[in-house]
Design brief:
By secondary structure, the protein is an alpha/beta fold. It is built from 10 helices and 12 strands. Helix 2 runs antiparallel to helix 3 and helix 7 runs parallel beside helix 8.
Length: 286
C-alpha cells in the first residue's frame, strides 16, 4: 500500500466510533456463523472492485478488520482518491479466518458507500472542469456518517460546505422572515458570531443586491435560472462569492458553472447513495 493517504482524515476517534456502531448492529453478542470455523484457522482474501470507481473509505475498512484481529495483514494496491477499473484486485488480506469473515460486511459497507460518494463526486467535478467552479457537498448526509461522507467528497475532488450548524452561518428564507428582513438578520449574525463565515440565501435579484450591501461573505442563489445567474455574476462583480443551489444535476451543472459563479452545492453527492460493487473472496490457508 502507498505510505500515506492523500487527504486529511477525520479524527481517528470518530472512525473508531463509526466502527463501534457498525459492529454493535451487525455482531451483537457475537458471530454465530463464524463459530463454524476452527478458532485457530487462518485465511487470506482478495478484494475486487467490480466496476470503474474512485476509492474512498480505506481507513474505515482497515479499522474493521484490525478491531477483530490486530495482527491482520492488509496490502492495498490503491490509495483513497484514486480511480480503479472494473475487475481490479485492490486489496489483499491475511489473518484469522473468524475475524475476516466477521468484519467483512461492515468493512465492505463503509468502503462501498464512501467509494460511491467519491465516484459520483468525481463525475460532477469532471462536468465543471475548466470553469474554476468548486463543487460543494451539503448537510444531506447519512445520519451518523457525515464526516465519513464529507471525507469521501474530498476523495472525489469536491469540497466541503459547512460541516454542521456550528461552523458557518447560512441565513435562509425562514431565518430572514423571523429576523425581520435581510439587513437585521445579517447584523445580528455578525454580532453573535463575528468570526464565522456568513452566507445568505437570495431568491431574487433584489435580495441579491440587498445581501451584497449588507456585507455578507457568500450568497446562495436559490433556484435561479441560468440567465438570472449570469446577471447575478454581473451585479456582484467579484465583490462577494456566489453559490448556486437547487435543480443541480449532471445535465445542468456544466451550464450553471459557465455563468461565472464560484461554487455549486450538490445534495446528490451524499443524499442519493449508490454503493460501488465490491467482492471479497476468502480461502483458508495452512
Amino acid at each position: 500500500m502507498p505510505d500515506a493517504l492523500p487527504l486529511d482524515l477525520p479524527d481517528t476517534r470518530l472512525i473508531d466510533a463509526d466502527i463501534e456502531r457498525a459492529f454493535a448492529e451487525d455482531l451483537g453478542k457475537g458471530d454465530a456463523t463464524a463459530d463454524l470455523l476452527p478458532p485457530d484457522a487462518r485465511a487470506e482474501a482478495a478484494l475486487t472492485c467490480r466496476e470503474d470507481a474512485v476509492i474512498a473509505g480505506i481507513p474505515w475498512f482497515d479499522a474493521c478488520f484490525r478491531k477483530l484481529d490486530p495482527q491482520v495483514s492488509i496490502e492495498w494496491q490503491v490509495r483513497d482518491g484514486e480511480r480503479v477499473t472494473a475487475g481490479s484486485v485492490i486489496c489483499r488480506l491475511r489473518g484469522r479466518a473468524r475475524a475476516l469473515v466477521s468484519a467483512e460486511r461492515s468493512a465492505l459497507n463503509f468502503l462501498q458507500l464512501l467509494s460511491g460518494t467519491a465516484t459520483i463526486t468525481a463525475e460532477y467535478v469532471a462536468a465543471v472542469a475548466g470553469t474554476g467552479v468548486r463543487v460543494l457537498d451539503t448537510r444531506k448526509t447519512v445520519p451518523g456518517l457525515r464526516q465519513a461522507q464529507k471525507y469521501a467528497v474530498r476523495c472525489g475532488g469536491g469540497h466541503n460546505h459547512r460541516i454542521g450548524l456550528f461552523d458557518a452561518i447560512l441565513v435562509k428564507e425562514n431565518h430572514i422572515a423571523a429576523a425581520g428582513g435581510i439587513e437585521p438578520a445579517v447584523a445580528e449574525a455578525r454580532r453573535l458570531h463575528p468570526t464565522l463565515l456568513l452566507e445568505i440565501e437570495a431568491e431574487t435579484l433584489d435580495e441579491l443586491r440587498r445581501a451584497i450591501d449588507a456585507g455578507v461573505d457568500r450568497i446562495m442563489l436559490d433556484n435561479f435560472t441560468p440567465a438570472m445567474m449570469a446577471e447575478a455574476v454581473a451585479i456582484a462583480a467579484g465583490r462577494v462569492a456566489l453559490e448556486i443551489s437547487g435543480n443541480v444535476d449532471l445535465q445542468t451543472i456544466g451550464s450553471y458553472a459557465r455563468t461565472g459563479v464560484d461554487f455549486i452545492s450538490v445534495g446528490a453527492l451524499t443524499k442519493h447513495v449508490r454503493a460501488v460493487d465490491l467482492s471479497l473472496r476468502l480461502q483458508l490457508t495452512d
